[in-house]
Amino acid sequence: MAVLIVVGLARSGKDSVADYLAERHGFSKYVLSDVLAEELERRNEIASKENMNLLGDELRAKHGMAVIAERLLKKIREKGNLAIVGPRSIEEILAIRKKFPEAKIIEVRAAPEKRFERRSPLDPVEEKKFFERDSNDLEKKGLRKVLNKKDFLIENRGDLKGLHLKIESLVQNI
């Protein structure tokens, strides 16, 4: 069983990596932000990136930095390969590794301009606002510490085919 924790800044390609692992290698994909989207839906609020950020901050302040990962882990029942997408803090990584000690961290990295081009309708339209999330994730939530603990790095600089080749190479090494 392989457990891969896929991390990176917004729109770096984390979901593309996890989707490929699911489609081509049978991984089950779990996304931390889905916990936030479900909670916002329960509250009858829009699951925008801004609302998810605010809710995540609220939950972490009330229940600790690992709360989102802990809620997600309660949903995992599979015994096969897993791709867990989007932890932002060391505490979330520790919670995942408590359940899955063999879990490996994969950082997906992309150039800022590429990431801004890839934004979704849920993302801020203004470039300044889009990149404000980076400093919040890196410093306030602790993503920088997570990225420093990575086991593997995927540079997502080209097209999807190039990304898939890099994923295949990585899969051969785990």
UniProtKB/TrEMBL annotation:
Signal peptide positions (record): none
Organism: Candidatus Iainarchaeum sp
A Pfam family of this chain: AAA_18
InterPro entries reported in the protein's UniProt record: P-loop_NTPase
Protein's UniProt name: AAA family ATPase
SUPFAM superfamilies: P-loop containing nucleoside triphosphate hydrolases
Gene3D superfamilies: P-loop containing nucleotide triphosphate hydrolases (3.40.50.300)
